[in-house]
Write a structure and sequence with these properties.
- The structure is a single chain.
- By secondary structure, the chain is α/β, with parallel strands linked by helices.
- It has a single domain, classed as Alpha/Beta hydrolase fold, catalytic domain (Rossmann fold), CATH 3.40.50.
- A 7-stranded mixed beta sheet has the order 1-3-2-4-5-6-7, sandwiched between helices.
- Helix 7 links the parallel strand 6 and strand 7.
- Helix 3 crosses helix 6.
- The longest helix is centred in the N-terminal third of the chain and has 17 residues.
- It is globular, with a radius of gyration of 17 Å.
- It starts with a strand and ends in a 16-residue tail after the last helix.
Length: 254
């Protein structure tokens, strides 16, 4: 681990689980402070680590090195409260999906579930100036300011496409692990058809589309509702039996 951001549950509350967040291209852990704080407020411990290093010439090795970093992140967090849920955005989501598809479930860091936010499609890449990249990422003025003011954020990082070999693993997975897939309906990098097929192929998947959200779906203008969806997923994991909905709408006029 080179760096990470930790946000703990409020004092006096029993920690309900552990959430490990993996950023995407160009992002630093600090970019997810707001998201981490929202999840932690509901008594979950949250750790945000560095984005994975993706080597286009060695995608398999990239996944193996990422697995070692995850194992270190979990081990250095003492005894993580269960459920342990891994949340990835952009290439963080791709790396998690590829890893979950090929690593044996007896790995010491193996999660109870994964959240994949903003999975990019094949060949998806951005061109243009920084303002153009911001428009693709998010229309939330606060988040745009965070991205622009953070010297650790790499501008232009979305210009390179994600290796197809990793996307093959991510979109072709049939691993028996609970998945929450999050995508903005205004995400220019998303392949909605591929996401829909992936959701159907996974035994325990929920695909949630966020209206008006762009690529940084965890940090766009709808971030409160997205965080609530993640907490709903976390709480359902804790339910008995797991993934049983806690609230069910019986009647509604909207």
């Amino acid at each position: 681990m080179t760096d990470h951001l930790d946000v703990t549950a409020p004092a006096g509350l029993r920690t309900r689980g552990t959430v490990l967040v993996v950023p995407g291209r160009g992002e630093s852990p600090a970019v997810y402070r707001r998201f981490a704080s929202r999840i932690a407020a509901d008594a979950y411990r949250v750790r945000v680590i560095d984005a994975p290093v993706i080597d286009a010439a060695d995608p398999a090795g990239s996944v193996e090195r990422f697995a070692a970093r995850l194992a270190e992140a979990v081990a250095s967090a003492d005894e993580p409260a269960r459920p342990l849920v891994l949340v990835g955005a952009d290439t963080g989501a791709v790396a998690l999906a590829a890893l979950a598809a090929r690593v044996p479930a007896d790995a010491t860091w193996w999660p109870d579930a994964v959240v994949l936010a903003g999975l990019p499609g094949y060949g998806a890449r951005a061109t243009g100036e920084w303002e153009d990249e911001l428009d693709l990422r998010s229309h939330c003025p606060v988040h745009r300011g965070v991205l622009s003011d953070d010297p650790a954020v790499r501008r232009g990082a979305l210009a390179g496409a994600v290796p197809s070999a990793l996307l093959d693993l991510a979109y072709g997975s049939t691993v028996d692990l609970p998945h929450l897939l999050l995508v903005g309906d205004a995400d220019p990098f998303a392949d909605r058809e591929a996401l829909a097929r992936a959701a159907k192929a996974l035994p325990k998947a929920r695909l949630t589309v966020v209206r008006g959200a762009h690529h940084d779906v965890l940090n766009d203008a709808q971030h409160r509702s997205v965080a609530a969806e993640v907490v709903t997923f976390l709480e359902a994991l804790r339910n008995d039996p797991p993934l049983t909905p806690i609230t069910v709408v019986e009647s509604s006029a909207w």
